Amino acid sequence: MAGRLIDPSRAPVAFGQRAVPQLFAELQRPEAGRRQRALASLCDLMHNPERIYQAVNGGFLEQLTVLFEDEDPSVRTKTCELLHMLTGHSVGRQALLSSSLLPPLSQLLDDSSSSCRRSVHRVLNRLSLLPAGADALLTLVPKLMLKLREDEEEEEVQVLLLSSLSSCSRLDALPALSADGVSLLGHKLSHRSPNICREAAAAMMALSVCEDGKRRVCEEAVLPVLVGLLQDEDIEVQVNAAGVIMYAVIISSGKQQCLDLGVVPVLLHLVSKKEEEEEQDEERGRRRKALVMYSLRALTALAEAPNGRRLLLEQLPLLVMRSEAAEEDQDIRRAAQTAVRVVTWTP
Q1: Residue 59 gets which letter from DSSP?
Q2: Is 189 exposed, middle or buried (0-12, 13-18, 19+ CB in 10 A)?
Q3: What are the pLDDT digits (tens) for 206-238?
Q4: pLDDT tens-digit series, residues 159-171
Q5: Is the dihedral angle over the CA atoms 280, 243, 193, 151 positive or is it negative?
Q6: CA 234/CA 229 separation, integer angstroms
Q7: 215 phi and psi, to 5 degrees?
Q8: Do residues 182 and 204 touch, judged by C-beta distance below 8 A?
């Protein structure tokens, strides 16, 4: 027996196992209002993992395809919100990846409704956090790059887009590099929003892992911006910028550019800086450790160049101090010891 309708924005929900089939049946109704209310009620139900299992195992997902083309933008938006709820559970994510929904869902990246586009990006971003999801989205990278070039979306959408690109590029950087990724991300590094800047630097780090990415980072003149970001107020921006520099200085052109930009004193300052919060805030301590590790590895690579070694020999006591301190983090101590060995190496 259907429950009494209390909220007019929701459809009546049947009792127990009948609820999900009944609501999916409502989605076939010709009245847009009934479809909207059914979708709202389904989103409520999907907070319960048992309902997600029922929706997936009952074969109901494929019924959503037709709703992607619904003439009512609120129906299209609510359909994407439902998928976002489903992908909050591993069963829902796997089901979506195994379905035929991704191609028509990706078409909604160009939807006329900004709310719908935002919901699509939320779904894609959640999928990209899985290796299988990132792999499935690699074919979408050129389109995501095109959306990034248009620069018309609100901050949340740009952050989601950049995050998805990071996840995909960590798996395979070639699609983004082939779509002029370094240049496009380079423009975002100077964005006024720290959230966009942070995600752009993270995506740039993913691209700079491979040889071609390192070369393009050096050719596209983004290193001056990244060196500036090492002194940003946001520690996550600093971490990501240091990560790109760490990879870039592996090649000769990266070493020379960074030395010309005076990066050594900046990196040494980051290595020597101590913060009381490290002991009190575990998350900030984790980020601070990553920043120090990336900086030490970058300094180690720069020490392979004669000018870099000369500069670092002058500051050797600082590196030695971090390499010998008994209270030092073990990983940081080992990285500092490696830096000292490279700096003091003689042929």
Answers
A1: T
A2: buried
A3: 999 999 999 999 999 899 999 999 999 999 999
A4: 999 999 999 999 9
A5: negative
A6: 9
A7: -60, -45
A8: yes
